[in-house]
TrEMBL record:
Keyword Nucleotide-binding listed: yes
Highest taxon above the source species: Bacteria
Record's keyword terms, sorted: ATP-binding, Nucleotide-binding, Transport
Occurrences of domain ABC transporter (ranges): 6-243
InterPro entries: AAA+_ATPase, ABC_transporter-like_ATP-bd, ABC_transporter-like_CS
Protein name: ATP-binding cassette domain-containing protein
Length: 251
């Protein structure tokens, strides 16, 4: 049996007396695309930050490729982080930098690198997300929201991470642009063979991007299954959430 790419076991995190994660157990297989759904404030971002090593959990373990990374620090932490790519909500592009420098930001990490080579790398990665060389020297503010999202995607894939995290990738986009981004994410994940974890409130996006969906509720994964079961989960919490109903067990 292959090792899961990401394995969370009984992960716990509280802030003061507010319990956010209360025993999260979840495995994401290599090459799998997993969507995490759940209401606002249920701890999706906290879970992601624990995996990224930005928040220390109070209990439980996180394994990446079988390695226990829960309490890594320093160089060992940075080595694990090098496996990760991230598409932030809102893109998080630097408006003071031209697009090509934004795309290669994760590769240079502020170091001086051969700019001709970096521009070529930026161009290659922009091409993967359907943008041409004409945007290389523009600033992010000169692009539409959908194009900025593509640039952020190009930046996330440029270092060829093994695992990519997408935080609300379609928020703020119109439905057509959201669909374009969903298709792009799906084809990038499949084309590059990466493992993907997407946090989303958008059920259309979850079904399009993911192979499997997991729902977080009251600090635990209360359901996970293939995305074609999302509307046929027989779980009253999942049902209420995906139908967006006010009445039901979630109050
Ligand atoms: N650093 C922190 N200190 C204190 N409380 C925190 C901290 N980070 C998160 N929380 C709390 O943990 C809870 C879960 O937050 P989190 O951001 O993970 O929710 P979420 O499921 O991602 O929500 P949303 O869908 O709205 O983004 C919230 O009540 C939040 O206030």
């Amino acid at each position: 049996m292959t090792e899961p790419k990401i394995a969370l076991n009984d992960l716990a995190k509280a802030f003061g007396d507010k319990v956010v994660l209360d025993g999260v157990t979840l495995a994401v297989e290599p090459g799998e695309s997993m969507a995490i759904i759940g209401g606002s404030g249920t701890g999706k971002s906290v879970m992601l930050k624990c995996i990224l090593g930005l928040i220390q959990p109070d209990g439980g373990t996180i394994r990446i490729d079988g390695e226990d990374t829960t309490h890594l620090r320093g160089r060992a932490r940075r080595e694990v982080q090098a496996k990760f790519g991230m598409l932030f909500q809102g893109g998080a592009l630097f408006d003071s930098l031209p697009i090509w420098r934004n795309v290669t930001f994760g590769l240079t990490r502020g170091r001086a690198m051969d700019s001709g080579r970096m521009r070529r790398l930026a161009e290659e990665n922009l091409e993967r997300v359907g943008l041409g060389a004409d945007v290389l020297d523009l600033r992010p503010s000169e692009l539409s929201g959908g194009m900025q999202k593509r640039v952020s995607l190009a930046r996330a894939i440029a270092p060829r991470p093994q695992i990519i995290f997408f935080d609300e990738p379609t928020t703020g986009l119109d439905p057509i642009m959201a669909d374009v981004i969903n298709d792009l994410i799906r084809s990038l994940v499949e084309g590059l063979g990466v493992t993907a974890v997407t946090i989303t409130h958008d059920m259309t996006s979850a079904r399009k991007i993911a192979h499997r969906v997991a729902m977080l509720y009251q600090g635990r994964i209360i359901w996970h299954g293939p995305c074609d079961r999302l509307y046929d989960s027989r779980n009253p919490y999942v049902d209420q959430f995906v139908q967006g109903r006010a009445d039901g067990p979630i109050q």
